[in-house]
Amino acid sequence: MRRCGVLLAALAVALAPGAGIAAPAPGAALPAPVRAVLERRDVPAESLSVYVIDVETGEVVIDWLKDTARNPASVLKLVTTLVALDVLGPAYRWSTDVYALGEIDGGRLDGDLLLKGNGDPFLVTERVWQLTRALRRRGLDTIDGDVLIDDSHFELGDYDPGAFDRQPLRAYNVAPNALLMNFKIVRYWFTPEPQTNSVQIELDPPLANVAIDNRLTLREGPCRGFQRGIAVNANDSVDRMIFSGRFPTGCERYSLSRSTLDHNAYAYGLFAAMWRGNGGRLSGSWRPGVAPEDAEPLYEFRSAPLGEAVTRVNKYSNNVMARQLLMTLSAEVLGPPGTEAGGREVIRQWLDDRGLDIDSLALSNGAGLSRSARVSAYDLVTLLDFAWRQPYMPEYLASMALSGLDGTLRDRLDGRGLSGKAHLKTGSLDDVTGISGYLQAADGRRYALAILNNHEDIHRGYGEEIQDALLRWLHGRR
């Protein structure tokens, strides 16, 4: 009788909220709707890993090849953002420091202005405008010298933006930088001019240090085709963009976003444009510099809090912002300059300190834009289960895309009662799909889940079919 009581007590503890992950329930394999999609699309079940638990009871709902380490693509951002929230806190803010290297008299700086970046991942055009406006409000009118750029807070080393897929101008391949501005991206707007058989090109933001070589002509036809017939190339220093091809007359307006310049030249170009747009005067150009150690900044421009940055990383799968977080972890914990290797070390130490045995994790750059990144479905769910019980859980949960409503899930899972019922992070590369996060079922139960699939052409829609079938089944499970 005493033995029976002990067993019952142990069972009660195991099923209590927060008790951790329980043993798999009978029939915890792949549901029939998922198997049907696999068979119809001729996708081997062995290419798929799924792990689903009830976050309140720890019940294992699906356990399918959970320990197989697979490439998660951008799902890996869930790891980087979780550690950033835990180590730095949701209210953490970056600063961009401005130094006046000379005397200011009557609004005129007799010397150089130095900008020191500390890793702000969201110093976009509007924020740079606010920075320059704040300097103007402090009475600074004229910079009678150069703009010095100090990006020494991070150290990336040699980086080839075309190494991943030979697309060096694509936004997702932009490298991190301590003074990252507007993700180093220009949006080019194309407007047809039928009277002259030409195409007008506008830049946003308007960088004066980018030259445009416009070789575009028009062709009769509807507004369709890859990049609307536009070929984009650049010279070696990426300060001269070459546009060629035949643009269809059926397009009223079209835009392309591409990486431009190197980081420091871009930062100068954007700062100068915003500075002059706010009525400021600048007589010089730019050059590298180092902030004086014993000087107080003229102004410290504070970023939005980390909680907001994490939302932009996960909802919209921003690669360079995720990489900024990884290097910020390195700089804050190990000391500057922040490095990718340092960020990986911080995350590995964090896992050890929290007692999280995540052996499958190969983090690479923290963004998932890698062929070598790996993690298992079990380890992802272990991290989700940990996050569910932390005080910053609301920020973490809200950072993920809402099914059928926003982010990378805006046009998915909006039927059969699933709209707004799941917070998920998606991931996709050639031959890779993944999705992970939390789902609230129709009966109110909440699940943590991870679905990882590595197979030839799985990114061509088949992976999403498999995911959607499983999520719909889970939502309606009784």
Overview of this protein structure:
- It contains eleven helices and 19 strands.
- The chain has 478 residues and is of the alpha/beta class.
- Helix 3 packs parallel to helix 7 and helix 4 (125-137) crosses helix 5 (263-277).
- The two termini are 34 Å apart.
- Residues 1-27 have low confidence and may be disordered.
Distance between the termini: 34 Å
* CATH class designation of the largest domain: Alpha Beta
* Helix share bin: 25-40%
* Succession of helices and strands: HHEEHEEHEEEEEEEEHEEEHHHHHEEEEH
Approximate shape:
globular
CATH architecture of the largest domain: 3-Layer(aba) Sandwich
Overall average residue pLDDT: 92
Predict the CATH topology of the largest domain: Beta-lactamase
Reported for the largest beta sheet, the result is:
7 strands, mixed
Radius of gyration of CA atoms, rounded to a whole number: 25 Å
Strand tally is 19
Structural class: alpha/beta
Number of domains: 2
Task: Detail the poorly predicted runs.
Answer: 1-27
Give the full name of the CATH homologous superfamily of the largest domain: DD-peptidase/beta-lactamase superfamily
By DSSP (H or I, 4+ residues per run), the number of helices equals 11
Strand content: 25-35%
